[in-house]
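ok new one. same drill as before - structure tokens go in, u give me an amino acid for every spot. 90 of them this time. try not to just spam alanines like last time pls lmao
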């Protein structure tokens, strides 16, 4: 025998199964997305750290170049003074 109550029960069971399958699929997709977001964040953090290191290195190089120029100017002045040569302003 087939009754309306049996039919309704089967429909409800089908809907529950569908909901569970959908929930499983969404949970799996969510885990996948969380994993990839975490990897992206790690990559971004590494990139930002590398950029900071590059910036710091460039700042050190600029400071060293400036010091080198100052030392060269002083050395030239000392050399010229040693030989008694005076620089004339341009």
């Amino acid at each position: 025998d087939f009754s309306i109550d049996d039919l309704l029960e089967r429909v409800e069971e089908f809907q529950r199964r569908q909901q569970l399958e959908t929930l499983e699929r969404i949970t799996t997709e969510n885990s996948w997305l969380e994993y990839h977001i975490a990897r992206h964040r790690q990559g971004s953090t590494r990139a930002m750290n590398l950029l900071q290191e590059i910036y710091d290195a460039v700042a050190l190089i600029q400071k060293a170049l400036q010091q080198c120029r100052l030392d060269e100017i002083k050395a030239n002045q000392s050399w010229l003074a040693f030989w008694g040569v005076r620089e004339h302003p341009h």
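Residues 14 and 86 are 101 Å apart (CA to CA). and btw The chain has a mean pLDDT of 94.
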